[in-house]
Design goal:
The chain contains 21 helices and 15 strands. By secondary structure, the protein is an alpha/beta fold. Helix 2 packs antiparallel against helix 3 and helix 7 packs across helix 18.
Length: 546
């Protein structure tokens, strides 16, 4: 009997009250229209609306995918609507100036302001909690120097490089055409041309959009060897690489070993997305999945990797050749160091990508918990090279959540010679951190292949904004360096920075990141950060000696 009453009263349960009201209103309006034909024109629209809602409610009751819709027909759709607009509501109404991830509202705002060359100053005082654990600052000098008049540049290219490159200390990090729209690539490269800095292609190959405006290019080659591969099996094609690398616009060639946001994870561009243009640029067949495997086919040991980098340098005509990685197992990078010593082959540069780096799409676990953060990675690589007496011939680049002059100065103090930024320059293009890169529905036309969306990015205006952002950021870096009593950011050392490690304790970066002595690894270090990993490393294999 209880079950019968429960069934009869179900329509009057609060869970179903919206559906019940819609059904009752639909029936009543229909009855009124039938009884009085004069009002049919008045009630027809409400009948359609409430009738449609009633049908939606019955569909919700019968569908099997969403339990909440079966229990709360019609009304539960409000939940899905709120879920849809939650990121925008949080960004525009609830987050403070220092909130927001991956980049705070304050950081995004300063990039927008510098890109537009409008006032980028702040009033009244810092909003940082300077007594909170983790707060960092740079030391100033009582004898500040005059501001440098020249843009900060470094020369990349070791003794084996015949065409060294004079690079800015701030460049555009790796972002592929395919991840970015044609207009975004055009604006970035033209901005780099105007400002005299470099534009990394990402592993998607050198497109016509990279070449249109003549900006300096760093050509990145990943495990898919896009733009220099054999179509049949996806292996490296030396002749095609030499042909492309001979372009004078390409200043350096970079081997991508891993990426900070998803180290050790390959990628697949579905066949349906492999357009004729993508097929031509990447050298892949149409109608087939475009696969970027998590490993390289051209080498499998540290010694083979060094030989491959030497071959890249030879095929490119002597241009700087190096590699990019996110540091994982320490013994693997130290195995590369041992391979350098054993083979006598040294890269001209190493770019260290942190796990805080950006990507168009990555699994949550990879993005949040895999790979070494940039600061620790840069300092580890720097010390390792010092420990084998190779630091003077190899330049180090840093990438991973770099957007301001302070970010650049901090990375260079820890061992970087220059910095790359991807998302910083995306903000300069107009990115609003909508976090929709993986959907192809970028609202600003930056990270999309939809031509109707990409047209929103007006290239001539964005060229100036890319250039302005770079110029204003380096100007701010100039002011920081002068305030510290220095002339060039390469003079920065860990002693110039401090971090609050508790509410009552402060340590300098020199204490937090102790330095190795030149040649210390060769002599046999007792530093616990390196001792065991150095003993485990072997030049002939990435596997540890246990």
């Amino acid at each position: 009997m209880a079950n019968v009453w429960e069934t009869l009263l179900t329509p009057f349960s609060p869970r179903f009250i919206v559906l019940t009201i819609c059904c009752v209103v639909t029936v009543l309006l229909a009855a009124i229209g039938i009884v009085d034909h004069k009002v049919i024109k008045i009630v027809i629209v409400p009948i359609v609306i409430f009738g449609a809602l009633s049908l939606l409610g019955f569909r919700d009751l019968l569908q099997e995918n969403h339990a909440v819709l079966r229990n709360y027909p019609i009304s539960a759709h409000i939940r899905f609507l709120l879920e849809e607009i939650r990121p925008e509501m949080r960004q525009y109404f609830f987050e403070s100036e220092k909130d927001g991830m991956p980049f705070s509202r304050d950081t995004r705002a300063v990039v927008y302001q510098r890109a537009k060359m409008v006032l980028d100053k702040r009033p009244f005082g810092t909003q940082e909690n300077i007594y909170a654990e983790g707060y960092e600052w740079m030391h100033h000098s009582m004898a500040p120097r005059p501001h440098a008049t020249e843009q900060f540049r470094i020369t990349i290219g070791g003794p084996d490089c015949t065409k060294p490159y004079s690079a800015s200390v701030f460049n555009i990090s790796a972002m592929s055409f395919g991840a970015l729209s044609p207009n975004a690539v055009r604006a970035l490269n033209a901005g780099a041309k105007k400002g005299g800095f470099a534009h990394d292609t990402g592993e998607g190959g050198v497109s016509s959009y990279h070449r249109e405006n003549g900006g300096d290019i760093i050509w990145e080659i990943g495990s898919g060897y896009f733009g220099c591969r054999n179509r049949a099996d996806g292996t490296f094609n030396a002749e095609e690489f030499a042909r492309v690398a001979s372009d004078p616009q390409i200043k350096m060639v970079e081997l991508k070993v891993s990426q900070g946001a998803k180290p050790g994870h390959g990628g697949v561009l579905p066949a349906a997305k492999v357009s004729e243009e993508i097929s031509r640029i990447r050298g892949v067949a149409m109608g087939e999945d475009c696969i970027s495997p998590p490993y390289h086919k051209a080498f499998s040991t540290p010694l083979q990797m060094m030989a491959f980098i030497a071959e890249m340098r030879r095929l490119s005509g002597g241009k700087p050749a190096g590699f990019k990685l996110c540091v994982g197992h320490k013994w693997e990078f130290l195995a590369i160091c041992k391979a350098m010593l054993e083979s006598g082959i040294y890269p001209d540069f190493i770019v260290v990508d942190g796990n805080e780096g950006g990507t168009g799409a990555a699994p949550l676990e990879f993005m949040d918990h895999l790979g070494m953060p940039m600061r620790e990675g840069v300092n580890f690589v720097h010390n390792a090279l010092v420990g084998i007496n190779a630091r003077d011939r190899i330049k180090i680049g840093a990438s991973g959540k770099i957007a301001t002059a302070f970010d650049i100065a901090r990375a260079m103090a820890l061992g970087a010679d220059w910095c790359n930024s991807a998302r910083g320059f995306m903000f300069a293009l107009g990115c609003i951190q909508s976090l929709s890169c993986h959907t192809d529905r970028c609202p600003t036309g930056v990270a999309t292949q939809d031509p109707t969306r990409a047209r929103a990015l007006y290239v001539p205006l964005k060229i100036d904004r890319v250039h302005n952002y770079h110029h204003a950021t380096l100007h701010s870096l100039t002011e920081l360096i002068a305030a510290a009593g220095l002339e060039h950011p390469q003079e920065l050392r860990p002693i110039h920075f401090s971090q609050r490690t508790s509410t009552t304790k402060v340590q300098t970066f020199a204490q937090l990141y102790p330095a190795l002595r030149p040649g210390e690894l060769l002599e046999g270090t007792e530093d616990p950060r390196f001792r065991d990993a150095w003993q485990m490393a072997q030049a002939a294999s990435f596997q540890p000696v246990l």
